[in-house]
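Field: COMPLEX_INPUT
Field: COMPONENT_COUNT = four
Field: RESIDUE_TOTAL = 484
Field: MODE = joint
Values follow.
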Amino acid sequence: MNIQLAERVKCSECPIRHRAVCARCDDDEIEMLDKIKSYRSFTAGETISWRGDELSHVSSVVHGIATLSKTLDDGRMQMVGLLLPSDFIGRPGRTTLDFDVVAASDVTLCSFERKPFERLLAETPHISQRLVEMAMDELDAARDWMVLLGRKTAREKIATFIQMLVQRSHVDGTDLPDLALPLTREEIASYLGLTLETVSRQLTQLKKEGVIAFSDRRKFTVTDHAALLDATGDDADGGVIV
Amino acid sequence: MNIQLAERVKCSECPIRHRAVCARCDDDEIEMLDKIKSYRSFTAGETISWRGDELSHVSSVVHGIATLSKTLDDGRMQMVGLLLPSDFIGRPGRTTLDFDVVAASDVTLCSFERKPFERLLAETPHISQRLVEMAMDELDAARDWMVLLGRKTAREKIATFIQMLVQRSHVDGTDLPDLALPLTREEIASYLGLTLETVSRQLTQLKKEGVIAFSDRRKFTVTDHAALLDATGDDADGGVIV
DNA sequence: CGGGCTTTTGACGCCGCTCAAAGATAGTGG
DNA sequence: CCACTATCTTTGAGCGGCGTCAAAAGCCCG
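Field: COMPLEX_OUTPUT
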């Protein structure tokens, strides 16, 4: 299945209205954006944009999860970002991206044609201010990721990843009891700088220790949260929302 | 030696005028910035700001090199950024940083008081636009770094690091023949997610193979550039400015 | 010349990768 | 409805790259 045009949703009813690039916009500004927006859908596994492709649009993720990844010549792959609803795809002032963007689940984007968007951007501080904020947040996340990739053990990487899923589910209000693993073992490995075998082994180990329990291969519960936190290698309460 | 106030330099004569956060500003805007700026100097090894400190200023690096790093409880450390002249320190909308900022060499900063700067930022699209651009560039660099940390071998990490120094010296116009290693082995290790012993061994290995040659412990030349590129693990011409 | 720091070098062991195969699950078509 | 296949996951055996620990060598500055 290829790019699907989904039906337009009113911005006022949009689930990401208050977190996306348009978060700070007032009604007039939203109306301007509304004129140049369209919805596009992708099915799980589809590539949204290849590294180096000319981008006709910039977009916000409305539903689903997308991955950003880079590949070395010999095939080694590293995920360099995970896009969740409200995250932004695109770079003002540049027409290409230096990584592949792939739909990890079914994904719906709210897309703006690049040129009109950039024109709007220049005239609308509310958008560029929000864009700075979002870029800085992503930079913070990337830096935490660098610590994980450079210094943490396989066990700590897995524990940190799970802890991240827990935190996110709290933020989303998708409160317990069953959490979804939104990625395959291979994708998790690509995210954590591991091999899929090591990911599998570490998950099994945490299961054996009674830290987590699987109801399904893609659904699990944290059964010993203190042990999980301990396994992350971070400070006891490092940034955790409890 | 503690924070030194250096003498003010006219913006028009500033070496980073065209690359820093003020790059897009017109004369009026520069004048506004000039009113709230001051220079501060730090000696090599001094900590410019600790993780979590309240920041009274945001700054641009004018001279020297500073490092951004994070530490896990048990002491493991990962560098998460390297600040060169024109790079920016600070986050609009937040008063603390989540990493330590340390002067790797003697450093001079052009600092702005945080509150007046943020007021200016809200009214001056030229500044926030430039800030988006710089944040995005840093994000790109962080993503390349994630690939290095997650997937590259020790040899490839070292080669990539040296290649980066080479590229930068070209950009700076500091053209050959002797390049300075701006960091100690330990700092390089912290940057690359290695131990200092491994850094030393890999440098020795490249020296033995005739890829690089040291004139001094902190100065070297690339003697076989093709071999160096080959050792990085990147595409043959991956982003190299020749 | 002496003390502290940085760097080099060596020996050794372990964590995580590689290679291999079997088991589980979901989707497909007969 | 079930066999068939493709994909994802688990598990095992073995090995090697890099970390750890230790000590010596080089360098800087008083």
